[in-house]
Amino acid sequence: MRLFTDKNYPIIISCAKELAPWTEREVHKMGYKVIDSTENTVVVRGDMRDVMKLNLKLRTAHRVLVPLVRSDCRNIRDLYEIAKSIDWENILEADGYFSVSSIVHNYTIRDTRLPALYTKDAIADRMREKCQRRPDSGGENKGAAVFVYWERDQVIIYLDTSGEPLSKRGYRRIPGSAPMQETLAAACIQALDWDGKSPFLSPMCGSGTPAIEAVMIAMNKAPGLLKGHFAFQSVKGYESIIPGESAPNVAPRQHFGASPAQIWKEIVLEAKAEERKDNLPKVVATDISPEAVENAHSNAIAAGVAQYIEFKACDFADSPIPEGKGVVFFNPEYGIRLGTYEELAPLYERIGKFMNEKCHGWLGGLITGNPDLARCVTLYYKARVPFFNGPIDCRLFIYPGCELKGQNA
Q: Residue 346 sits in which domain range?
């Protein structure tokens, strides 16, 4: 397909609402020029090699998508015809497997499962006509993937090169209650401008996600290394030689070209070589629940970073404070899914007191979906960064120096 040979193909990176600025920041650091963005997409140009790098290294994105067609679409029958018009025989393996996911906002659709089902049928019918057989399909995160975005009377059908969302790193085997998504944790750490060298303290760590993401950032560990499969690995032509491409460190060497599979191996090797494993900062994760600490430790083992995190079961106020100045980050209950204002107000007051007394001079961060509870933290904040934790509209409060209000005057 064109993606394997076109160096200037549009690549759409999707992310959760309010994460686009942080995804865009990552993309810039990787050397890409952003040609467009929305509240939940960032667009760059590149080829299959770029698709691979983005899937491997992005920390705040959900999917890396390649547009196949954009068209007017009034109803489900239109969708079927549009999907069937795509040359799937050049994209999918006839003996392979594919899945379809969708986001649909069209008044004619009452059952949101229908667009994915009709798209599957269109792909299967086209493949059967062109190849006399068709690939299997279903809801499993294996094989190739297709993504349908249908907004009012416009539909875009994408090749989803990620498959299972990038937010699912693969290490959170035991999520615990109200877990923080990996991409959100990574974006919060970016927003706090942590340098990856100073200490990082994560009290009330829950499933351990912020501490694990912090270590991966400090190590420069590509999050995609933890995933077993990307959907681009099941695209037709993945094993075929592309003239002019090269993967010099992958055997057998090909003087006349390299396959996407060989290029992927080279990119993975380069990412592993760029990891930092010495002189890492002190990262501490604590929780009052011994079970939560045990689960967080198990998740850190799955991520391959447990040896770099100090875990302790204790009240957050008894968290060990590493030497030097660093970042302390809280993700307490919001009083929405867990707890009430009356129950949580004293907790937020204690958090503010802890940060001021035990972490004075540190940079503090607290994310919450409850502005009333945030007012109980009597610290001076320099910013309130908008984020969404699932459907919950949140703010990340950033406290420079963890100083009480008025101390900074």
A: 182-221+276-400
**Residues 228 and 170 sit within 8 Å (Cβ to Cβ):** yes
Task: Give every strand in the sheet of 309-313, ordered side by side.
Answer: 309-313, 283-287, 200-202, 327-330, 363-368, 392-400, 383-389
In a domain, 233, yes or no: no
CB 116 within 8 A of CB 101: yes
CA dist., res. 261 & res. 321, Å (int): 46
Dist. CA 12–CA 5, nearest whole Å: 18
List the CATH number of the domain containing 48.
Answer: 3.30.2130.30
The pTM assigned to this predicted structure is 0.92
What is the average pLDDT across 369-392?
95
Which helix (H) or strand (E) segment is 139 a member of? none
Calpha distance 308→204 (Å, rounded): 18
Instruction: Look up residue 76 and give its DSSP letter.
Output: H
CA distance 4 to 318: 54
